[in-house]
Amino acid sequence: MTAKAPFQEVVELIKESGGAALAECFQCGTCSATCPWRDHFSFLPRKMFQEARMGLTDFESDATWRCVTCNKCVQRCPRGVPIIELMRALRRSVIGMGIAEAPTALSGALRNLSAAGNPMGEAGENRNAWAEGLGVKAFNASTEYLLFPCCYTAFDPAMKNVGRSTAGVLSAAGVDFGILEGISCCGESVRKAGDEELFKQLAGVNIQLFKECGVRKIVVNSPHCYHTLVNEYPELDGRFEIVHTSQLMAQLVDQGRLPLPSAITGKTTYHDPCYLGRHSGMYDEPRRLIAASGAELVEMEPARADSLCCGGGGGRIWMETPRSERFCEERLRQAAATGADTLVTACPYCLSNFRDTALNQSLSEKFSVIDISELIARAL
Ligand code: SF4
Ligand code: SF4
């Protein structure tokens, strides 16, 4: 098949890959007007859907990989078109059917996930090294919560403090939690990148492990893990009670189990991660925690459902984006404009993107970028 083939078979292929909802699009263009790429790069979802309906999809186009699955357009589409599902169908046509090449960096992450169970290609036995010296117990069937830090938190040395802070906060509140050996990546970005089989493989490993070990409740620090475990694991018969760290910590504060005597001073702004906010509706829990820490919250423009994506969703965290096209550059300028000295977020992808960008913009000296768990740990 050529890259640009006006054939009915292309239409059928996209439908078979999950793109039947293309028929519902009436080409109003709201998605293109809403998309954060609008200000950074020529990426037009409406045009992609029109081409797909006509069998004119260019599978080799960079556009196939641009959607960060931020959910902004989905909230505005007047026809309720499942736009992220359509993007996934286009990618599945590429990856599942081998029609064209995925971007090199993404292919590398997918190979690592297939071989090692994590996108960095790290040895699985090092997954819990972040917890060394903390005395976190091994999960057993009578433990209340399994703590499931995402791959970034587990393996990236710059992110380990997020896991360590979370463990410190949960311990301080007397939460009964433990960690497990043998966990794989939750598979979220794999599925968004279109590799359905690898997603099922990774999720299957986790679901089987959780069942064998008697896991009932899982606390996750990544909104991407949260969304996948809540919405996608049940399709594979993986039904567990999932809480995000910000949700659990807010509950602990409300229950009076988490005194925070070391009040934080200064101004803090909060970035709503797409998968915690727009995808999961959690806007208030992190804000309640910031208030409980003593910090003064100053809101960014835009915030909550209108928040600008950091650019890391939909597998883009594993792909190269030219600096001039990165949303996180603009988002950090919005954060700095509040006059805050600290930017708090609640997602490892956002955290990683903002920390790198703060270094690029020479903001890291006067502006600290931290996870909500790190803020609360400082207030203990
Ligand atoms: S907003 Fe919905 S109906 Fe309008 S062009 Fe986009 S997908 Fe189609
Ligand atoms: S989900 Fe976000 S990035 Fe993807 S097309 Fe919609 S608005 Fe654009």
UniProtKB/TrEMBL annotation:
InterPro entries the record matches: 4Fe4S_Fe-S-bd, 4Fe4S_Fe_S_CS, Cys_rich_dom, HdrC_iron-sulfur_subunit, Helical_ferredxn
Nucleotide-binding keyword on record: no
Superkingdom, taxonomy of origin: Bacteria
Domain 4Fe-4S ferredoxin-type as annotated: residue spans: 57-87
Gene Ontology cellular component list: plasma membrane
A molecular function GO annotation: 4 iron, 4 sulfur cluster binding
UniProt keyword Nucleotidyltransferase, yes or no: no
Protein name: Fe-S oxidoreductase
Keyword entries, A-Z: 4Fe-4S, Iron, Iron-sulfur, Metal-binding, Oxidoreductase
